[in-house]
Amino acid sequence: MFPVVDSVGRGPAVVPGGAGFVLQSGASGLLANPWFYAAFSALSLLAGSAVGIWVRPARRWQAALLAVGGGSLVVSLAFELFEPAFRNIGEYPASGFFLCGILVFGTLDVLIDRWADDDTEENGAGLWASVTTDGIPENAAMGSLLAGNVSGALALLFGLAVTNGSQSMMSGTNMSENHGERRVMAVWVATAAVVSGSVIAGYRLLPPLPNYWIAAVRAFAAGAILASLAGEIYPDAYEEAGPYITLATAVGFLGTFLL
């Protein structure tokens, strides 16, 4: 076992090595098991892509769901990732790592957009690339939250599941119009494996680090999420659903805040 300080400074949490359970504030069992979070993250991508490929809901409903997830992520990046980092390592270091996340993933989104020419963007490959790259730090940060703030990890899981599920749905719909359905599904199976693996990596590798670097990773992940919201999620949602995404965003924000 190794002690870690939880993300809100409430003291040590006990992480049994290899058991996959966190005992903190009475939280244990399924909701503290990193494999549950990994499986749920993967399932959201697989379910979303399958619905997009074979059901193909109206694009405005897909966009509304995307905005719900975006509103949810605003709460999680502020209160579960950046605020604890801000308190633990100070305003300037936390802000610096936050801006690094913005710059790295904002630049990455720009490069993906340049790579994704009009045809590539239309067939969903650009959105798939964005989901894959952004999903790694987001899910690693969620895994790290299980070492001390299970309720925060649950709120972040909700936001990521809704957002990634709707992104994979939109991408699956577009990709399946230009590629074979089984081939597109296989691509999303591989992406789900990478994203779920990031949860386990975050849970296993981040808690043993000094508290400073745990906070740094979370602040960086908060910046990455905000870059994704500004550069990919809301532009895509507004393009398909227009001003209706305002209400959808409010639903996601309020639901996650209450959770």
TrEMBL record:
<keyword id="KW-0812">Transmembrane</keyword>
<feature type="transmembrane region" description="Helical">
    <location>
        <begin position="241"/>
        <end position="258"/>
    </location>
</feature>
<protein>
    <recommendedName>
        <fullName>ZIP family metal transporter</fullName>
    </recommendedName>
</protein>
<feature type="transmembrane region" description="Helical">
    <location>
        <begin position="184"/>
        <end position="206"/>
    </location>
</feature>
<feature type="transmembrane region" description="Helical">
    <location>
        <begin position="61"/>
        <end position="82"/>
    </location>
</feature>
<feature type="transmembrane region" description="Helical">
    <location>
        <begin position="35"/>
        <end position="55"/>
    </location>
</feature>
<feature type="transmembrane region" description="Helical">
    <location>
        <begin position="212"/>
        <end position="234"/>
    </location>
</feature>
<keyword id="KW-1133">Transmembrane helix</keyword>
<keyword id="KW-0472">Membrane</keyword>
<feature type="transmembrane region" description="Helical">
    <location>
        <begin position="140"/>
        <end position="163"/>
    </location>
</feature>
